[in-house]
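A student in our group prepared the protein record below, which I am reviewing. This is what I was given:
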Amino acid sequence: MLRSVMFCTSLLATVPVAAQPAALTGKAIPAALSGKMLDLGALLRDQTAEMPAKSVQVQIVPEFQLAVVVFALTGWAGGGNHFTNHLAVFRTESGEDGTLNYRLIDTLVIGGRGTRSVDKLRVAVQQEQDGNSLLLRIPAKANLPEDSPNFPSKPITLTLRLKDQRLSILSPKTS
């Protein structure tokens, strides 16, 4: 048993890891959030995946003290281009020096090859009547049977609930 664990550990040590950018760039990505996103991407990816900087979209929602981020993990595993769209929600908190700090609330897979994608992040956030949860509505596109896996064409609205620090997809459900 110990020998197989040592063998597996040595295999993991030799697997090449895709390089990640030192920082995400773009006017809409605050520096403090860029660092958090790089850390999150490193945690979620495997040895073949990477998080392209151009896939990261950020929307700050000040009235709810949230930063909503959509990003993709892409890779070339199994002979094809694979990608997965993720949503991350951060709580924004003002530091003593006036800068915004970001605390990860939750992350969730919201799409990917053959299901749906978010081309441009435009999230609408609304508090539910119970006062304990938020609804997030995001315009997206879903794949029709005749669509190529990476090119969905049907406009949809992706509705998610943030309740008790957890995200869940309300509609549309992926079959």
Summary: Confidence is low (pLDDT under 50) at residues 1-23. DSSP finds two helices and ten strands in the chain. Helices lie at 2-14, 31-44.
